[in-house]
Design goal:
142 residues; alpha+beta; Alpha-Beta Plaits; four-stranded antiparallel β-sheet; two-stranded antiparallel ribbon; 37% helix; Transposase_17; Transposase_17_sf
């Protein structure tokens, strides 16, 4: 008897698309101030999980240090990554400033919590060299 087929949770299926899109994101607070404590990092993760869920995306991994956070996001092709980043940063900034006002004010001043820039890298698939080789092998002989 053959093993039962299990669907791959990394593959999203839509009406006209089958895909797997992952992004590694890194956000830093304004002026790279070390504002994060373990408690604030836990709350930041909760907020970002909620934002992702509302956008039909999934926060697969989250971690951070005092001066930055890392996210691994699995998202559908309908989601514009820059829009999702804006929501993640905007919503988390609002709640973290509100819930940890005294602590945050010691590290950050003004209206901004996050630096306006961020790091984003696509990930989750085969290395580029493997994909390039695969495409090369698809050439038809003349």
């Amino acid at each position: 008897m053959s093993p039962r087929w299990e669907p791959n949770p990394d593959i999203r299926r839509g009406r006209s698309v089958v895909c797997t899109l992952h992004a590694h994101l890194v956000f830093v607070p304004r002026f790279r101030r070390g504002v994060f404590t373990d408690e604030i990092l836990r709350r930041c993760e909760e907020i970002m999980r909620e934002v992702c869920a509302k956008a039909n995306a999934e926060l697969r991994e989250f971690n951070g240090e005092r001066d930055h956070v890392h996210l691994l996001i699995h998202y559908p092709p309908q989601v514009k990554l820059s829009t999702l980043v804006g929501s993640l940063k905007g919503v988390s900034a609002h709640y973290l400033r509100k819930e940890y006002a005294d602590h945050v004010r010691r590290y950050l001043w003004g209206e901004h919590f996050w630096s306006p820039s961020y790091f984003a890298a696509s990930c989750g698939g085969a290395p580029l060299s493997v994909i390039k080789e695969y495409i090369e092998e698809q050439k038809r002989p003349d």
